[in-house]
Write the structure tokens for this entry.
Amino acid sequence: MGGMSRRRLIHTASASVAAAAVGGRARAAAPSAAIRVDGVRTRFVEHRYRTPYKFGGVPVDRATILDVEIDAVGADGRRVTGFGSMPLGNVWSFPTRTLPYDVTLGAMKGLAARIERIVAGCDEAAHPIELARLLEPEYAAAAAEETAARGLAEPIPALAILVTASPFDAALHDACGKALGASSFLTLSPAHIGHDLSRYLGDDFRGESLQDAVLPAPVARVPLFHSVGGSDPVRASEVKEKLDDGLPQTLADWIRFDDLVRIKIKLQGEDLRWDIERTLAIDEEARATKPGTDWKYCCDFNERCPDVEYVLEYLRTVEERSRPCFEAIEYVEQPTSRNLRAQPRVDMHAANKLRPIVVDEALVDLESLLEARELGYTGLALKACKGQTHSMLFAAAARKYGMFLTVQDLTCPAAALVHSAAIAAWVPGTAGLEANARQYMPEANEPWEERFPGLFRITDGFLHTDCLAGRPGLGVV
């Protein structure tokens, strides 16, 4: 990790954030990419899922999308409007055994209203990375206030704060790029931000540029990971209710429909035999349907495994039963609790000798990334739902530490999918993108198919991201 201890690195990186939270906002520098907020508008859009998506033992059948528009003024006086969109994803970001769905969703919607007022009241002129540094302590305080106002038995967690704030952060980055007439992914140098990476990631990154964490242009295509949820039918015999909407239901039909090459396998983490048989069945069906394909799988336990021994037995048994299936497992995602400090701590070093172990739900800040590395996680999942700012900073940290990278979504439709695809295309070395709204929320994507056919009409198992080249902002609108 370089010449600095984790504790010292965290202290250095967080000192300026803490300072911003004490005694009001600190004044920010105003480099050429600085923007000033001139108005904020939000709206909620509701969608029902085509079929329930089961992950982490919980079926989800609906989504609330938060759309954000931010009017901003660039350093040269140009007026622009940035746009961001994200599902609130409360089941994933605010998991609880005590609070019902409508309560956690209501808390996140209430927090969104508070964040809207915070952003609208910001009079700083700064780059979105710097604005995030200044405003995030206020978002955390707003979450505590919303928790108290609603009398919640559990506080709004850090991950839910990131998800709620993410469309605001996206809209700021979108506005910044538009003000410069450039992609937001090309506005990340110290000359644009006003600071090098050490301001946000600590002394280990002194003199380093965030711009080096992205490519000079997006790659032309990104592998799509098709999701097989815990209740999704693999074989025709598993279909309980036939849907006559023109879309596939079984895995084999999806493989033929989209010419798939990658699969994300949702597992239980509580039934080892089921997890093993499910993985082998999916592999068998994939190979029978499309022989000769270089299949790659992501195995996602959604933090349900009790310990590393479960993961080891799963991987070793799959290898014993089918070497090709084992070799196709590209990585294992968040197998155990997102609480990395839970006792006893779960060390993943033995598991990462078999396959990369990727941190997802546990990844909310630099400290959690460093905690995960200490515990043996060798990769991380970038997500637009954690914010463009955090995605770029995590990408820079992963690059420095030589970590495996992938991009995941939150059943992101429409603009949120375009944003997610952009992260996967601009950040080098990502394994691919989960893009499952086409499976579970296709009606939300329909208005976008003509504008971005390469992203919304899959014909060869890839998202064609060359359409994002040359587009200002985040490339959405």
Observations:
- Residues 1-29 have pLDDT under 50 and may be disordered.
- The domain at 212-468 is CATH 3.20.20.120 (TIM Barrel).
- The chain has two domains: 6-203, 212-468.
